[in-house]
Design goal:
With about 250 residues, this protein is α+β, with helices and mostly antiparallel strands. Helix content is about 25%, strand content about 25%. The longest helix has 16 residues.
Length: about 250
């Protein structure tokens, strides 16, 4: 994920776009939307931030939202992107869902919005709090109770915070083989970090086995793949896939 000089970075947050019986989750929904965008918008990655699963918080399955990181050379195109995203959710979110969308330039995400996003990790918050935090950016409910504005705003703030979630889209990472060299991952901007207590440092020629499921975490604003040692020069991704909807 290498920013283009002088380009405007946009954070597009989706949440509550599905139901328990719908075939795809919010991550797949935002990826589908971004796949149809014109070349004036460049997709740099899609993140899956996590929100808490608590009895007092309504959620579908895992309470995860989604945030796409996009670039454009024309800042005036931000409004059109927001309107297109809202129209897409209004037309495509299934009956019974409560979708919301939030859009902000990276520069417009202030400390208050980030603080709101972090507060979402501690318990239930209100739509009014989301609207107050997003007062200077684009925010809309697109159906049902409109509760999705909470998670959509949180997705934008947590992405800007830089220490939450994992990448579900990043360049061609979904097409990489099940085993890939550390040097190849680093060439794509993905840092490889051991989370074993006494493990050695992964070297460029070492091999990482992902099992065909490569999902780096967002650490310090960068994609970081956490790995565990499997022997000298061999590593495996520390976080594996779990059952759920396609993301």
């Amino acid at each position: 994920m290498h920013p283009t000089p002088d380009a405007v970075t946009l954070y597009l947050g989706f949440d509550d776009t599905d139901t328990k019986t719908s075939p795809k989750g919010t991550g797949r929904t935002i990826r589908d939307f971004c796949a149809g965008l014109p070349e004036t918008y460049r997709l740099r990655g899609v993140l899956r931030p996590q929100l808490p699963k608590l009895p007092e918080i309504p959620y579908t399955s895992n309470n995860s939202s989604a945030c796409a990181i996009l670039e454009t050379d024309d800042p005036s195109l931000a409004r059109g992107l927001f309107e297109a995203a809202a129209a897409f959710l209004t037309a495509n979110a299934p009956q019974g869902s409560d979708p919301g969308v939030c859009l902000a330039t990276a520069q417009a995400v202030d400390a208050g919005l980030v603080d709101f996003a972090l507060s979402c990790n501690g318990g239930r918050v209100s739509q009014q709090a989301a609207m107050a935090a997003a007062a200077d950016v684009h925010l809309a409910g697109c159906g049902g109770t409109n509760d999705g504005i909470i998670g959509a705003t949180a997705a934008v703030g947590l992405t800007r915070h830089g220490w939450c979630g994992r990448f579900i889209e990043l360049d061609d990472m979904r097409r990489l083989p099940e085993t890939v060299a550390v040097a190849e991952l680093r060439r794509r901007g993905i840092e490889v970090v051991s989370v074993d207590r006494d493990a050695l440092v992964p070297l460029p020629g070492d091999a990482v086995t992902t099992g065909g499921w490569l999902r780096p975490s967002l650490w310090a604003g960068r994609p970081v793949l956490q790995v565990r040692a499997q022997g000298l020069g061999r590593w495996t991704a520390a976080l594996g896939k779990r059952d759920g909807k396609a993301a």
